[in-house]
Amino acid sequence: MILSIGLAILAVILTILYLYFSRPINYVVRMGELGFNLGPSDSTGTYRERQIERLKRLRKVGELPPVYPNGWFCIAESGEVKAKEIKAVIVFGEQLSLIRAEDGQVYLMESYCPHLGANLTVGGKVVDNNCVQCPFHGWVFSADSGKCVRIPYEKGSIPEQAKISTWPVVEKNRHIYVWYHCDGEMPHWEIPDIDEVESGSWPYRGRTEHELLCHCQEIPENGADLAHLNYLHLQIPQAGNNVMELKLNKTDPILHHFWDGGWEVKNGEDEKHISIMTLQQVMKIGDKAIPLTASLLKAHQIGPGIVYMHFDFGFWGRGIVFHHVTPEEPLFQRARFVLYGNINPLFARFFIKSEALQFERDVYIWSNKRYVKSPLLCRSDGPVQKHRRWYAQFYSQNSPRLLPDGTVTGQVKSVLDW
Fold first, then answer.
1. Distances (CA, A) of 254 to 80, 170, 241, 250, 354
2. Which single residue of 6, 146, 216, 378 has CA 20 to 30 Å from 339?
3. How many CB atoms are located within 10 Å of the residue 34 CB?
4. Which residues cross the membrane (predicted)?
């Protein structure tokens, strides 16, 4: 009897532990929590904040490309905005309002009422299915067209200028995207559907999110920089370690990653906005591969801000990581990794946290480096320059640039306003 009770208690404890550790991970790193090496004595408090601001002012950023490329960019995950809700969104240096109508449709519009400038995200509300009411005087605007459709106290006609800018948005694969083009051109391509995600056959397995200081091009360029994989990412990540603490001069650790891959551009005029990186990875002890640690990655970069990372983990299952880079300001990026797949929940949790720790090694580099327009490359560096030529298609003559005084050239506005 006692043995049976003990086994039952053990089974309950193991079940609780499994349920706890198999939850989808939600790992978020805010600006200032990572990427700066200020020493052990100034890791917290106001002094740290002042030092980070000082480093940002003194940093040499180099001769940067334009800061906002043309393309689709993720502004939210679908679950972040509920029906009849308004969510504040920052992108391209603008404060915008993401609206989900009563029927579930999403819209994006400027946040400020043209009447007297009230912010719609602070007290505004969704009315009449897909309209937004200003919290100041109750003016009502269509989230679709941006036009004012009602002024509660006005008996005459509505002024023709009573209109708010709206932006093209689409909801795909449980994410919401905005289209940007500096010359007002409508979308050049569509975002592909991932049927397993749309249908729900691949469940949500977790996410990570990082705020970082760099140019948005630096992040996807990593995919073409194959040489850094077997140096910066050679060793197994350890929780709590940052890149400044790693013994990077030890290039032959006993337990290590082995990476092998390539990068290429899709052929065809209608697919020129797509590039593909393939990467085979396995963990080794010495020169012996560890069973069940191999994975195959095929990453499709779709424009400047979207990467579909298709993973095959063999025994552990298959899935996709949506990797999104969103330029909120010229040198402020929000990077998200969201995992879906038929993957064991415990393995999924381990994988996405390990992926985040590897990514954070790059964050330390990006947060402190300068952009080198004409890099000094050797034969084994990988197709970095080829990637830059491919990425250049997302810039136009009028693409906004960052000036030395911190201002941005050109006017960032919706393509629907041209």
1. 43, 47, 18, 10, 18
2. 216
3. 17
4. 5-21
